Amino acid sequence: MSYITKSPWIIHYDGSSCNGCxxxxxxxxxxxxDLERFGIVNTGNPKHADVFLVTGGINAQSEAVVKNxxxxxxxxxxxxxxxxxxxxxxxxxxxxxIIGGVDKVIPVDVYVPGCAARPESIIDGVVRALxxxxxxxxxxxxxxxx
Amino acid sequence: MITEIIFAVGFIILAxxxxxxxxGMDRKVTARMQGRVGPPVLQPxxxxxxxxxxxxxxxxxxVNFYIFSYLIFVAFTGALFFSGSDILLVIFALTLAHVFLIxxxxxxxSPYSHIGAERELLQLMAVEPMLILAAAGFYMAxxxxxxxxxxxxxxxxxxxxxxxxVGIVYVLTIQLRKSPFDLATTHHAHQxxxxxxxxxxxxxxxxxxxxxxxxxxxxxxxxVWLFFASMPWLGxxxxxxxxxxxxxxxxxTTRVRWQxxxxxxxxxxxxxxxxxxxxxxxx
Amino acid sequence: xxxxxLLVFLILFPVLAALLFCILPNGRLxxxxxxxxxxxxxxxxxxxxxxxxxxxxxxxxxxxxxxxxIMTGLEVIISxxxxxxxxxxxxxxxxxxxxxxxxxxxxxxxxIHETAALNNLFIDPFSIIMAMIIGIIGSLIxxxxxxxMRDYHAHHDEMPDKRRWFYALLFVFLASMFGVVFSNNLFWxxxxxxxxxxxxxLLIGYNWGDEQTRKNAFWALLLNLVGGLxxxxxxxxxxxxxxxxxxxxxxxxxxxGPAVAMIPAAxxxxxxxxxxxxxxxxxxxxGAMIAPTPVSALLHSSTMVKAGVYVIIRFAPxxxxxxxxxxISLVGGVTFLLASxxxxxxxxxxxxxxxxxxxxLGLVVACAGIGSYAAVWAAILLIVFHAIAKSLLFLSVGTxxxxxxxxxxxxxxxxxxxxxxxxxxxxxxxxxMFLAPFGMLISKWAALVAFLDAQYGFILVLLLAFGxxxxxxxxxxxxxxxIEVAWKPEPLEVKISNHxxxxxxPLTVLMVAVCIGFPLLSSYLVxxxxxxxxxxTATLGQANTIIMVMMVFMVLVMPLTLLHFxxxxxxxPHYVGGRPATPDMHFxxxxxxxxxxxxxxxxxxxxxxxxxxxxxxNGVCIAFIALMLAGILLGVIA
Lengths: 146, 283, 638
What we know:
By secondary structure, chain A is α/β, with parallel strands linked by helices. Chain A has one domain (about 5-145): Rossmann fold (3-Layer(aba) Sandwich), CATH 3.40.50.12280. Chain A contains four helices and seven strands; from the N terminus they run βαβββαβαββα. A five-stranded parallel sheet of chain A has the order 2-1-3-5-7, with helices on both faces. Chain A is globular. In chain C, strand 4 and strand 5 form a beta hairpin. Chain C is globular and about 85 Å long. At the A-C interface, helix 2 of A face loops of C.
């Protein structure tokens, strides 16, 4: 029985977002949606996290940070791109400073489009990510021969 | 001798589960205070198991040695306490355990860990006088340092050393890492130092820290209970009330600066110790 | 049945060696003879233990007439020499003290018609413990200093090379320390005491050309002379009270009980306080850190300052349940708390060690002032553990200092990577100072029990509780510094002399051995002494001893888990705010500039500053001492 889906910890990072999606992410944690009832905790520390929520497109400055944060997360881990800017770069895709969506830097597991993505979509995305997380964990256990 | 071993082993096996239940209730009550539903009561257990499912990754290899030593000595401290040993040695063993934790944080050579370690040292320095004075108080009231003798004392020690009880409850907030004294690290979300002391601990390493925290929680609540040991059910009630107060304080206060924590903890220890011990000495 | 030869040998042999060192030139031969002489002293000390341990107290008759005259003559010569120096450097206070002290001693000698004093020398379990500290630890430090001083002069070739006098003084010092702990005749004790003051003065002033060194040496001399004057006044009192000179014998004085011996106990206690650098006399010890490290290790942590607490412990039965004793305890307790506090704010390693020494001596004094059997048991254990741990620490700091070129703890970052062997020894020394299950812990436990059982002891309990918490802070932060190992540490552990290792390693082994074997130490040496005086003794208790043994076992076995944990795991990068950081902690800062991460410890100087806490401590302790002296002057205090 895997516990990783019962206790997924989140780290959230804003690549270049207008903060719209960030506010929606935080809204998920408020008593209205109460993500903690699924054991989800917003830890600000990549080393403690299982799920990486990224908002906003990636530019030259945030590219290194996203990569670094992703590297610090121990396996198994999943990445959820929240909002259309994180998925593809959104409206800013053609801008000179935006490299693109998050998948230009790190592998993304779930895309949650929207501008701003609604809390319901974000939660749906996270739940799907948990399913993928479970698969990854099973694969890891096989390989490790735990 | 046999009973002591049974108690010690019992503590080592059961305390993480009891601690997890207590932690789970904590989060449930906190959630209700905030108008939420909150996680299931067994959530801390799920957290710990999840951490051990993660990849074995460290920042430096030696860190696991320090954290493992921390865990072992915390378990040892609690086992000593619940098997009725000398309470001073219990306190010194706890200090040793915390020193290992702090060294584990230092060994990562990371800035957030480092400051977390310094703050944890400040917390340790703030708490230790009160613990030693409480032990001294138990001795003056019962003539013995052995937890067994203290627990079997016919009157509730709260009547003889009430101020020391208040002091212990005060530093309990520091030890349980609850606001307003959660300077080094905390279970809540963000804090100014990311996760402070535990920033660089991942996966199983963090799992060990969590288990140690569960042991510590049970140990400290046991210490609170000791003041009412002659009336065990009243003691249990007191523990529940005290813990509820801790949750309440945790949710209604913000973190203070270390100067406030150190000064207030020392002031409380000084006043409680001087008056209570003085009265006991002069009577 | 027992013969006195061994004691006399231990006192005279180092003096003869010293004379030899005055003559021999610098070089391999002299260094080899230093090692040889040290080895002989160690063997002789061990033989002393074998011969006398378990034999109770033994007194020796030595015809004292001529020896006392030689001593008086030497005292006059030494006083003349000091007067000359004092005059040359305009140290009028010192000159005055020397004159007054000599005057008092000569006056007392006129008053006292000493009969052929018997029982001048003696040996008992406490003397054996002190002799072993002096003989074993002291000799190891002398061996260490061979390697250290070679390096020292290689680094400082502008300093005049006076190593002949250095070694001579070291061994004269050892001889006089043996004299202190073997003397039952208080005149003799005083003579040896003053010789240690002289050696300390000269050794602190090793680098005489430097002004600060001279200042510190004179200050040490001044404060120690003040104590010496107190001691000298004891003889005046004896002369006025009992001209037959019976009370000059320490055993007779102690047996006379508090009714008779209170005043000399207070005066000698005062002398002990100055020699043990208690507040308000602490500044001389801090200033003495300017001396080469072996001097700091030998005189100013493991041996000479122990002479101060030694006499206070000797008079512990007199101090028991008296106002004088209690005031002395308070001086010790306040010193313990405040000196520990000051140690937090210091980053100079030797200063931290100095204040820690002052603090620990304060704890010993606090126990001795209480004077109960439990307190004396605790005090002697404290002495043993502290002597070993502190000398180990000083010696490792000395070795480290020569390699990293600094005494500052902030420069010792990650020493475990740069100098692994020495760092581990230093860590064991630090752990030995405050961590369970090491010995200091046991001693603190014992001290706490002793305080709780004493009248008004709860004030000392308060001082111990807070002081103990403070010590955890500054030792752990030093430990933390040592283990913050850089990614590719620069290997500095090269060309450390065998002399230095041959002191460091045995001391480390001794540290661990004494912690494991402390029940043996207690029952074989400490308990017989305590029992012999009080008819009762304290122990750790069987249950507690089992727990301590378990903890020692765990602490020794735990490092083996490193073998398991060292196996390569995935290494994660550090968290530096999300900025990419290299393993050696350089991160990409703003504007893309690569910056190093610099980590420093907390020193909390606003709260634990040296000035502030010294003023408080000095003020409070002056009040206590003044109260004590006023009390005995007025004859009010019993």
